[in-house]
Amino acid sequence: MTPRPIRVCLIMHSTRSDNLGVGALTVSQIEILRGIGRSLGRDIDITVLDWKDARTPYVSGPDIRILDLDGRFLKNPRGFFATVRRSDLVIDIGAGDSFADIYGRGRLIRMFVMKFLTHLARTPLVVAPQTIGPFTKGWSKTLALLSLRLSALVVTRDAKSTAALRELGYRAAAIEASDVALRLPYTAPPPRADGPPRVGINVSGLLMAGGYTGKNELGIGLDYPALIRNLIRRFQTAGAEVHLVPHVIVRSGAMVKEDDYRASEALAAEFPGTILAPAFDSPSEAKSYIAGLDFFMGARMHACIAAFSSGVPVVPMAYSRKFEGLFGTLGYGRTVDCTSESAAVIEEKIMAAYETRADLAAEASVALALGRDKLLAYEQGLEHLLERAGA
Q1: Could you tell me if residue 191 is inside a domain?
Q2: Where would I find the beta strands (DSSP E) of 30-93?
Q3: Exposure string (b/e) for 278-308, b if CB count within 10 Å is 16 or more?
Q4: 126-144: average pLDDT
Q5: 379 lies in the same domain as 272
Q6: At 331, is the pLDDT very low, low, confident or very high (cuts 50, 70, 90)?
Q7: 164 and 122 share one domain
Q8: What's residue 104's pLDDT?
Q9: Residue 254 above 70 pLDDT?
Q10: Which domain covers residue 268, as residue numbers?
């Protein structure tokens, strides 16, 4: 008798977010689940509870079901609760870094509702590799710790998050892995023998706009637009072919001010000779483009992960602790900090890294091997749970 498929539900993932970093997590998670299914010799049916976005989903197949998630679905007992109760396992990746109270009360409350409805349904919950914290409020610390204690598997993606987990009071076993996007599939570029060095700059529309509100709530300590313009000038003067590479692509709606593409398009018009990368339709398409560059920098962390995991020397331009947490845990110490370092210091660090990009590539290769080993621990823990769930 053929066993039924193992039913897995993904929450706080997205198959169609304008933020290709969140999409990269989802595509990579599904890649991991499909690999585990092959290893176990079992079919895995994957349901993604996804907020409504206009994009065509990045993933498809007979094993994928996408259900629209909104407030009504969340509150309806026949909606969210029934879906997770029918599942054998629920995996929550927290959109990478949303399991914190720094992004506002509303977002975190929605996350807690989903977590505790899953606990109430008695379906095992996996806290997939993500940034944990910071939590600064008493109520959020209490609820976060309670949910973590009720979870079947807790996984962080960096040492800073592991420390935050312990500071919350969580004492049970946890896995310190790495970002699942290290597994994001892509098409490797063909060999290239000549031509000028190709330098990619991921321009953050969010930072160009001064943050979500325009009031610099992210604490950027420098003139980010001026820094980007100076970098373009210096790379062009050095004879490089400059590519402006968007990674959050917002075609319409309230969040259009965060759009990397519009910010890059304006800079491409301002600086003749720069190359504007396409408005990518998927995370893998973006990674495949980035993989064809010779050097890369950016303020979108998953754009930097795409470079890092495809062998492109990269300088991450951090605006939060998640950058140093991820790359620093792997021993890759090339991150610059836009909240504490001056524009002049960052500019010189990036230009020096460009001149020694072969050294960066060697350092990244060692760090990437460590990241994949750490990620394997998550995959093995997840496989053990799925094997038990499908028994």
Answers
A1: no
A2: 44-51, 64-69, 89-92
A3: ebbebbbbbbbbbbbbbbbbbbbbbbbbbbb
A4: 94
A5: no
A6: very high
A7: yes
A8: 75
A9: no
A10: 198-369
